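hi! just following up on the protien thing from before. the input was this:
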Amino acid sequence: MKITALENFFVKPRWMFLKISTDAGLVGWGEPIVDGRARTVARAIEELHPLLLGQDPGRIEHLWQLMYRSTHERGGPILISAISGIEQALWDIKGKALGVPVYDLLGGACRTHIRMCAHCGGASPQDAAFQAKGLRVKGYSAVKTAIEGAVRTIDTPEFLDKTVARIAAIRQEVGRTVDVAVDFRGRLSPAMSRRLLPLLEPYGIVFAEDPCPPENMRAIAGIAASTTVPIATGGRLFTRWEMRDVLEQRAVAVLQPDVCHAGGIFETRKIAAMAEAYSVSIAPHNAHGPIALAASLQIAACIPNFLMLEHPGMPNKWDVGHGFLATPFNILEGYLDLPRTPGLGIEMNEEAIRERAYAGDWESPRPLHVDDHSVAE
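and the predicted 3d structure came back as:
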Protein backbone atom coordinates (compact mmCIF):
# COMPACT_ATOMS: atom_id res chain seq x y z
CA MET A 1 0.00 0.00 0.00
CA LYS A 2 1.28 3.45 -0.96
CA ILE A 3 0.29 7.03 -0.19
CA THR A 4 -1.15 8.63 -3.31
CA ALA A 5 -2.48 12.03 -2.17
CA LEU A 6 -2.82 14.49 0.69
CA GLU A 7 -5.67 17.01 0.67
CA ASN A 8 -6.35 19.91 3.06
CA PHE A 9 -9.82 21.28 3.85
CA PHE A 10 -10.17 24.68 5.52
CA VAL A 11 -13.41 24.31 7.45
CA LYS A 12 -15.40 26.85 9.43
CA PRO A 13 -15.21 27.85 12.24
CA ARG A 14 -11.37 27.80 12.40
CA TRP A 15 -10.37 24.24 11.67
CA MET A 16 -8.40 22.38 9.06
CA PHE A 17 -8.91 18.72 8.18
CA LEU A 18 -6.40 16.56 6.32
CA LYS A 19 -7.24 13.55 4.15
CA ILE A 20 -4.57 11.03 3.11
CA SER A 21 -5.48 8.62 0.30
CA THR A 22 -3.81 5.34 -0.65
CA ASP A 23 -3.72 3.12 -3.70
CA ALA A 24 -5.57 0.44 -1.72
CA GLY A 25 -8.63 2.66 -1.39
CA LEU A 26 -8.14 3.29 2.33
CA VAL A 27 -8.14 6.90 3.53
CA GLY A 28 -7.08 8.44 6.82
CA TRP A 29 -8.06 11.71 8.46
CA GLY A 30 -6.15 14.08 10.72
CA GLU A 31 -6.52 17.55 12.16
CA PRO A 32 -3.38 19.69 11.76
CA ILE A 33 -4.13 23.15 13.08
CA VAL A 34 -2.59 26.18 14.75
CA ASP A 35 -5.22 28.75 15.66
CA GLY A 36 -4.99 31.63 13.19
CA ARG A 37 -2.23 29.90 11.19
CA ALA A 38 -4.17 27.29 9.22
CA ARG A 39 -2.86 28.38 5.83
CA THR A 40 0.69 28.37 7.16
CA VAL A 41 0.29 24.81 8.43
CA ALA A 42 -1.25 23.83 5.09
CA ARG A 43 1.81 25.15 3.30
CA ALA A 44 4.06 23.16 5.64
CA ILE A 45 2.11 20.01 4.75
CA GLU A 46 2.57 20.75 1.05
CA GLU A 47 6.32 21.01 1.61
CA LEU A 48 6.26 17.55 3.21
CA HIS A 49 4.51 15.95 0.22
CA PRO A 50 7.75 14.80 -1.49
CA LEU A 51 8.68 12.84 1.64
CA LEU A 52 5.31 11.08 1.81
CA LEU A 53 3.94 10.39 -1.67
CA GLY A 54 4.65 6.81 -2.71
CA GLN A 55 5.58 5.75 0.82
CA ASP A 56 4.07 2.89 2.82
CA PRO A 57 1.62 4.59 5.27
CA GLY A 58 2.15 1.79 7.79
CA ARG A 59 5.74 2.88 8.53
CA ILE A 60 4.50 5.57 10.89
CA GLU A 61 7.58 5.96 13.08
CA HIS A 62 9.88 6.01 10.05
CA LEU A 63 7.80 8.68 8.31
CA TRP A 64 7.58 10.75 11.53
CA GLN A 65 11.36 10.74 11.87
CA LEU A 66 11.74 11.51 8.18
CA MET A 67 9.49 14.57 8.42
CA TYR A 68 11.01 15.76 11.69
CA ARG A 69 14.66 15.32 10.70
CA SER A 70 14.45 16.27 7.02
CA THR A 71 15.78 19.79 7.58
CA HIS A 72 18.39 21.35 9.83
CA GLU A 73 15.79 23.37 11.78
CA ARG A 74 13.36 21.25 13.79
CA GLY A 75 10.33 21.70 15.98
CA GLY A 76 8.06 24.68 16.51
CA PRO A 77 4.28 24.96 16.34
CA ILE A 78 3.92 25.01 12.53
CA LEU A 79 6.06 22.00 11.61
CA ILE A 80 5.03 19.84 14.57
CA SER A 81 1.33 20.59 14.09
CA ALA A 82 1.64 19.66 10.42
CA ILE A 83 3.38 16.41 11.38
CA SER A 84 0.76 15.77 14.08
CA GLY A 85 -2.15 15.89 11.63
CA ILE A 86 -0.34 13.70 9.12
CA GLU A 87 0.55 11.20 11.82
CA GLN A 88 -3.07 10.98 13.02
CA ALA A 89 -4.18 10.17 9.48
CA LEU A 90 -1.50 7.49 9.16
CA TRP A 91 -2.72 5.77 12.32
CA ASP A 92 -6.28 6.00 11.01
CA ILE A 93 -5.18 4.14 7.87
CA LYS A 94 -3.19 1.54 9.81
CA GLY A 95 -6.06 0.78 12.17
CA LYS A 96 -8.47 0.42 9.24
CA ALA A 97 -6.03 -1.84 7.39
CA LEU A 98 -5.74 -4.14 10.41
CA GLY A 99 -9.39 -3.82 11.45
CA VAL A 100 -8.71 -2.55 14.99
CA PRO A 101 -8.92 0.74 16.90
CA VAL A 102 -5.65 2.64 17.21
CA TYR A 103 -5.50 2.09 20.98
CA ASP A 104 -5.34 -1.67 20.39
CA LEU A 105 -2.07 -1.05 18.53
CA LEU A 106 -0.71 0.98 21.47
CA GLY A 107 -1.14 -1.61 24.21
CA GLY A 108 -4.91 -1.95 24.40
CA ALA A 109 -7.56 -0.24 26.48
CA CYS A 110 -7.05 0.64 30.15
CA ARG A 111 -10.71 1.68 30.61
CA THR A 112 -14.13 1.14 29.08
CA HIS A 113 -15.26 4.78 29.01
CA ILE A 114 -13.57 8.17 28.92
CA ARG A 115 -14.13 10.89 31.50
CA MET A 116 -14.84 14.23 29.84
CA CYS A 117 -14.24 17.75 31.17
CA ALA A 118 -16.55 20.48 29.86
CA HIS A 119 -15.72 24.16 29.47
CA CYS A 120 -17.59 26.51 31.81
CA GLY A 121 -17.86 30.18 30.81
CA GLY A 122 -19.71 33.08 32.39
CA ALA A 123 -18.27 36.54 32.99
CA SER A 124 -19.86 37.08 36.40
CA PRO A 125 -19.95 34.71 39.39
CA GLN A 126 -23.70 34.28 38.86
CA ASP A 127 -23.33 33.43 35.16
CA ALA A 128 -20.47 31.02 35.85
CA ALA A 129 -22.42 29.27 38.59
CA PHE A 130 -25.45 28.95 36.28
CA GLN A 131 -23.35 27.32 33.55
CA ALA A 132 -21.63 25.04 36.06
CA LYS A 133 -25.01 23.91 37.38
CA GLY A 134 -26.10 22.97 33.85
CA LEU A 135 -22.98 20.86 33.38
CA ARG A 136 -23.43 19.16 36.75
CA VAL A 137 -27.03 18.31 35.86
CA LYS A 138 -25.78 16.72 32.63
CA GLY A 139 -23.59 14.42 34.70
CA TYR A 140 -20.14 15.97 34.26
CA SER A 141 -17.75 15.24 37.12
CA ALA A 142 -15.18 17.76 35.85
CA VAL A 143 -15.46 21.33 34.52
CA LYS A 144 -12.84 23.85 33.45
CA THR A 145 -13.14 27.61 33.53
CA ALA A 146 -10.68 30.26 32.33
CA ILE A 147 -9.26 33.58 33.40
CA GLU A 148 -10.50 35.99 30.73
CA GLY A 149 -9.05 39.30 29.61
CA ALA A 150 -5.66 40.87 30.09
CA VAL A 151 -4.03 40.87 33.52
CA ARG A 152 -1.50 43.45 34.60
CA THR A 153 1.87 42.21 35.78
CA ILE A 154 0.92 43.38 39.28
CA ASP A 155 -2.83 43.72 39.32
CA THR A 156 -5.22 45.09 41.92
CA PRO A 157 -6.88 43.47 44.93
CA GLU A 158 -10.15 43.98 43.04
CA PHE A 159 -8.96 41.58 40.33
CA LEU A 160 -8.10 39.00 42.97
CA ASP A 161 -11.48 39.41 44.68
CA LYS A 162 -13.43 39.06 41.42
CA THR A 163 -11.49 35.98 40.35
CA VAL A 164 -11.87 34.26 43.71
CA ALA A 165 -15.59 35.12 43.81
CA ARG A 166 -16.12 33.48 40.42
CA ILE A 167 -14.35 30.26 41.42
CA ALA A 168 -16.14 30.24 44.78
CA ALA A 169 -19.51 30.53 43.03
CA ILE A 170 -18.71 27.58 40.75
CA ARG A 171 -17.57 25.46 43.68
CA GLN A 172 -20.65 26.29 45.72
CA GLU A 173 -22.90 25.30 42.81
CA VAL A 174 -21.25 21.98 41.89
CA GLY A 175 -20.39 20.84 45.40
CA ARG A 176 -17.31 18.87 46.42
CA THR A 177 -17.83 15.88 44.11
CA VAL A 178 -17.08 17.73 40.86
CA ASP A 179 -13.51 18.63 39.89
CA VAL A 180 -13.00 22.28 38.97
CA ALA A 181 -9.97 23.21 36.87
CA VAL A 182 -8.90 26.80 36.25
CA ASP A 183 -7.12 27.78 33.04
CA PHE A 184 -4.95 30.84 33.63
CA ARG A 185 -4.14 30.81 29.88
CA GLY A 186 -0.65 32.12 30.59
CA ARG A 187 -2.13 35.55 31.32
CA LEU A 188 -0.68 36.04 34.80
CA SER A 189 2.84 36.94 35.77
CA PRO A 190 4.59 34.61 38.23
CA ALA A 191 4.09 37.26 40.93
CA MET A 192 0.34 37.43 40.36
CA SER A 193 0.01 33.64 40.29
CA ARG A 194 1.80 33.40 43.63
CA ARG A 195 -0.70 35.92 45.02
CA LEU A 196 -3.80 34.31 43.52
CA LEU A 197 -3.24 30.57 43.95
CA PRO A 198 -3.13 30.58 47.77
CA LEU A 199 -6.51 32.34 47.73
CA LEU A 200 -7.92 29.50 45.58
CA GLU A 201 -6.61 26.69 47.77
CA PRO A 202 -9.77 26.48 49.95
CA TYR A 203 -11.85 25.66 46.85
CA GLY A 204 -9.95 22.47 46.07
CA ILE A 205 -9.38 23.08 42.36
CA VAL A 206 -8.06 20.02 40.57
CA PHE A 207 -5.36 22.00 38.72
CA ALA A 208 -4.29 25.46 37.63
CA GLU A 209 -3.37 25.46 33.94
CA ASP A 210 -0.57 27.68 32.61
CA PRO A 211 -0.30 29.96 35.68
CA CYS A 212 2.23 32.03 33.70
CA PRO A 213 3.43 31.93 30.07
CA PRO A 214 4.53 28.31 29.52
CA GLU A 215 7.82 29.25 27.87
CA ASN A 216 9.01 30.26 31.36
CA MET A 217 9.22 26.79 32.87
CA ARG A 218 11.50 27.73 35.75
CA ALA A 219 8.89 30.26 36.82
CA ILE A 220 6.16 27.61 36.66
CA ALA A 221 8.30 25.35 38.83
CA GLY A 222 8.66 28.20 41.33
CA ILE A 223 4.89 28.72 41.36
CA ALA A 224 4.34 24.99 41.94
CA ALA A 225 6.63 25.16 44.99
CA SER A 226 4.61 28.04 46.46
CA THR A 227 1.13 26.42 46.52
CA THR A 228 -0.74 23.20 47.21
CA VAL A 229 -2.80 23.68 44.03
CA PRO A 230 -1.65 21.13 41.40
CA ILE A 231 -0.11 22.86 38.37
CA ALA A 232 -0.78 21.83 34.76
CA THR A 233 0.78 22.79 31.44
CA GLY A 234 1.68 21.31 28.07
CA GLY A 235 -0.97 22.40 25.57
CA ARG A 236 1.51 24.79 23.95
CA LEU A 237 4.57 22.57 24.13
CA PHE A 238 5.89 20.38 21.35
CA THR A 239 7.35 16.86 21.35
CA ARG A 240 8.83 14.78 24.14
CA TRP A 241 11.93 16.96 24.24
CA GLU A 242 10.06 20.05 25.47
CA MET A 243 7.94 17.92 27.82
CA ARG A 244 11.08 16.38 29.27
CA ASP A 245 12.20 19.75 30.63
CA VAL A 246 8.83 20.17 32.39
CA LEU A 247 9.14 16.79 34.06
CA GLU A 248 12.79 17.15 35.04
CA GLN A 249 12.06 20.43 36.79
CA ARG A 250 9.18 18.85 38.77
CA ALA A 251 7.09 21.78 37.52
CA VAL A 252 3.69 20.10 37.16
CA ALA A 253 1.34 17.50 38.59
CA VAL A 254 -0.68 17.32 35.36
CA LEU A 255 0.71 17.34 31.82
CA GLN A 256 -1.56 18.39 28.93
CA PRO A 257 -0.10 17.33 25.57
CA ASP A 258 -2.28 18.29 22.60
CA VAL A 259 -2.43 15.54 19.99
CA CYS A 260 -2.64 18.24 17.28
CA HIS A 261 0.50 20.05 18.48
CA ALA A 262 2.65 17.64 20.49
CA GLY A 263 3.61 15.41 17.56
CA GLY A 264 0.59 13.19 17.04
CA ILE A 265 -0.80 10.07 18.65
CA PHE A 266 2.35 7.99 19.18
CA GLU A 267 4.38 10.98 20.33
CA THR A 268 1.66 11.79 22.88
CA ARG A 269 1.76 8.16 24.02
CA LYS A 270 5.51 8.47 24.54
CA ILE A 271 5.00 11.69 26.52
CA ALA A 272 2.44 9.93 28.72
CA ALA A 273 4.91 7.13 29.44
CA MET A 274 7.56 9.68 30.44
CA ALA A 275 5.07 11.42 32.72
CA GLU A 276 4.10 8.14 34.35
CA ALA A 277 7.69 7.71 35.53
CA TYR A 278 7.37 11.06 37.36
CA SER A 279 3.91 10.26 38.85
CA VAL A 280 2.38 12.96 36.65
CA SER A 281 -1.18 12.64 35.33
CA ILE A 282 -2.24 13.28 31.73
CA ALA A 283 -5.20 15.49 30.86
CA PRO A 284 -4.95 15.82 27.05
CA HIS A 285 -5.50 19.36 25.82
CA ASN A 286 -8.33 19.36 23.28
CA ALA A 287 -9.86 22.63 22.07
CA HIS A 288 -10.30 21.73 18.40
CA GLY A 289 -12.63 19.78 16.13
CA PRO A 290 -14.03 16.23 15.98
CA ILE A 291 -10.97 14.56 14.43
CA ALA A 292 -8.81 15.94 17.23
CA LEU A 293 -11.34 14.54 19.70
CA ALA A 294 -11.22 11.14 18.00
CA ALA A 295 -7.41 11.08 18.11
CA SER A 296 -7.37 12.23 21.75
CA LEU A 297 -9.79 9.43 22.69
CA GLN A 298 -7.33 6.84 21.38
CA ILE A 299 -4.71 8.20 23.81
CA ALA A 300 -7.17 8.50 26.70
CA ALA A 301 -8.14 4.86 26.20
CA CYS A 302 -4.69 3.32 26.51
CA ILE A 303 -2.65 5.32 29.04
CA PRO A 304 -2.74 4.33 32.74
CA ASN A 305 -2.14 7.87 34.04
CA PHE A 306 -5.15 9.45 32.31
CA LEU A 307 -7.05 12.07 34.35
CA MET A 308 -9.70 13.58 32.05
CA LEU A 309 -10.22 14.82 28.49
CA GLU A 310 -11.52 18.33 27.86
CA HIS A 311 -13.79 19.37 25.03
CA PRO A 312 -15.01 22.87 24.10
CA GLY A 313 -18.73 22.10 24.38
CA MET A 314 -19.82 24.19 21.40
CA PRO A 315 -23.58 24.98 21.35
CA ASN A 316 -23.90 23.65 17.79
CA LYS A 317 -22.01 20.47 18.82
CA TRP A 318 -19.57 20.76 15.94
CA ASP A 319 -16.73 19.82 18.28
CA VAL A 320 -18.32 16.37 18.83
CA GLY A 321 -18.90 15.92 15.11
CA HIS A 322 -22.41 17.14 14.32
CA GLY A 323 -22.40 18.02 10.64
CA PHE A 324 -18.96 16.45 10.10
CA LEU A 325 -19.19 12.82 11.25
CA ALA A 326 -21.59 10.19 10.00
CA THR A 327 -22.07 9.23 13.66
CA PRO A 328 -21.27 12.11 16.05
CA PHE A 329 -19.90 11.44 19.52
CA ASN A 330 -22.53 11.23 22.26
CA ILE A 331 -21.45 12.26 25.75
CA LEU A 332 -23.65 10.62 28.40
CA GLU A 333 -23.39 11.51 32.09
CA GLY A 334 -20.04 13.18 31.41
CA TYR A 335 -18.44 10.15 29.74
CA LEU A 336 -17.77 8.86 26.24
CA ASP A 337 -17.86 5.14 25.52
CA LEU A 338 -14.67 3.62 24.23
CA PRO A 339 -14.55 3.68 20.41
CA ARG A 340 -14.78 0.16 19.00
CA THR A 341 -14.48 0.71 15.24
CA PRO A 342 -11.15 0.57 13.37
CA GLY A 343 -8.66 3.40 13.08
CA LEU A 344 -9.75 6.62 14.76
CA GLY A 345 -13.25 5.20 15.02
CA ILE A 346 -14.94 7.86 12.88
CA GLU A 347 -16.50 8.08 9.44
CA MET A 348 -16.23 11.54 7.92
CA ASN A 349 -19.12 13.12 6.04
CA GLU A 350 -16.92 14.31 3.20
CA GLU A 351 -19.78 15.89 1.27
CA ALA A 352 -20.61 18.12 4.25
CA ILE A 353 -16.93 18.95 4.73
CA ARG A 354 -16.59 20.05 1.12
CA GLU A 355 -19.73 22.18 1.46
CA ARG A 356 -18.26 23.92 4.51
CA ALA A 357 -14.77 24.23 3.08
CA TYR A 358 -13.55 27.81 3.14
CA ALA A 359 -11.93 28.82 -0.13
CA GLY A 360 -11.23 32.52 0.50
CA ASP A 361 -8.56 34.25 2.54
CA TRP A 362 -8.27 32.48 5.85
CA GLU A 363 -9.08 34.40 8.99
CA SER A 364 -6.13 36.26 10.48
CA PRO A 365 -5.19 35.88 14.15
CA ARG A 366 -7.30 37.98 16.47
CA PRO A 367 -5.47 41.14 17.60
CA LEU A 368 -4.57 41.23 21.24
CA HIS A 369 -5.29 44.59 22.87
CA VAL A 370 -3.28 44.92 26.04
CA ASP A 371 -1.34 47.72 27.62
CA ASP A 372 2.39 47.63 28.19
CA HIS A 373 1.96 46.36 31.72
CA SER A 374 -0.16 43.31 30.90
CA VAL A 375 0.82 39.73 30.34
CA ALA A 376 -0.17 38.63 26.82
CA GLU A 377 -1.75 35.26 26.22
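The two ends are 44 Å apart (CA to CA).
The domain at 104-342 is CATH 3.20.20.120 (TIM Barrel).
cheers
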